[in-house]
Amino acid sequence: MFNLSRNLFRISRSLPTCQAWRSLFIQWSETPNPNSRKFVPGTSVLGTGTMDFQTKESTVISPLARNLFQIAGVAGVFLGPDFVTVTKATDADWVVINPDVFACLMDFFTAGTPVVNDVYEEDVEEDENEDSTVSMIKELLDSRIRPTVQEDGGDVIFIDFKDGVVYLKMQGSCTSCPSSIVTLKHGVQNMLQFYIPEVESVEQVEDPVSQEAFDKTEAAISAANEEQEGQSTPTSGKLDH
Fold this sequence. Notes:
Blueprint: E1 6-14, E2 21-30, E3 36-40, E4 51-53, H1 63-69, E5 74-79, E6 84-88, H2 94-111, H3 132-150, E7 154-162, E8 165-172, H4 180-195, E9 201-204, H5 208-232
Parallel strand pairs: 8-9
Antiparallel strand pairs: 1-2, 2-3, 3-6, 4-5, 5-6, 7-8
């Protein structure tokens, strides 16, 4: 996954401090996913770790994500250590969304509002009896793979390792990226297999909520098509003369 272009915007805003004006530099770049763009506000976002928001309801713990979801056309928000990835709906236009995203980021970071609510605590499970192979997989992901993927506004999260298969979840710009499967198979899988012989393959884990919604949509479309076909089928019978 490679950055395609990069632009730099300089936004100034008056602040009620001893310094009359302060400049906020927001850098953005396109990603391999045409529906996602990476925004770098030039200041810490999460500091460490990442958070993925695919629905407006899930943003209750993050004022920043909640504000971004108020923008018409925004379909997803991904927060990284020092960047924000915004994913738009397929039918939305970046020409319309981009200025609103810049304004939202400028207002938020100049106001000094916490990115995540203070009451939120990340649930991190540490398994003292973790298998050595799993530890090696996580170490490679954290040191070699995740930093590269985050450069394009996404992330790769370890889910499980079972029967030689590594299960990973793609986030941010990677969620619906056309090249995510290529990255997973030819990038992540090849590297893990090179260093860890126990790894036979790498598989992507879909978001259960997104998959459920997709299945419901598919079922509704199929039902509608069947109903339409039934209505268009001519009724057989004897014609009266």
